[in-house]
Every structure is written in structure tokens, then in C-alpha cells.
Write a structure and sequence with these properties.
alpha+beta; 71 residues; globular
Length: 71
């Protein structure tokens, strides 16, 4: 699990931090699970998925009960 404080919750910020802080260390994930926020569902993040070749699964937001993966 990687949590990084950010100045905003835009798709550009999410994609930048994901590439800098996650893909730099783990370059070939099979799938990535996020909380399903709009910044992770944006077209920019989908393009990162396509370029890097991983599947993206939306899970429930933190504190919303048992975690459910929707792949």
C-alpha cells in the first residue's frame, strides 16, 4: 500500500505520482487496485494503464465496509 499526500485530487496528479512513486519501483504490475476515485477513473489514468499494460480494479473507498474488488 502506498499513500502519498497531494495538493489536489486531479487525474494528472494521480498519474504523475503513480508513475513516479509506484511504477518506478514496481515497473510491471499485473493489476492495480484503487479506491475508485474519479481521478483513477479518468481517461488519463486509463491511458497509463494501456501504456504500461496493467488491469485496473476499483475497490470500495476506505472505511466503507469490507473491501470488494470489481475487476
Amino acid at each position: 500500500c502506498v499513500c502519498v499526500p497531494t495538493k489536489d485530487a486531479t487525474a494528472a496528479t494521480a498519474a504523475q505520482i503513480f508513475c513516479d512513486r509506484w511504477l518506478a519501483f514496481f515497473p510491471s504490475p499485473t493489476f492495480v487496485v484503487t479506491d475508485g476515485g474519479p481521478h483513477f477513473r479518468a481517461e488519463l489514468f486509463r491511458q497509463v494503464e494501456a501504456i504500461r499494460g496493467f488491469s485496473h480494479c476499483d475497490g470500495q473507498a476506505w472505511g466503507a465496509g469490507p473491501f470488494e474488488r470489481r475487476c
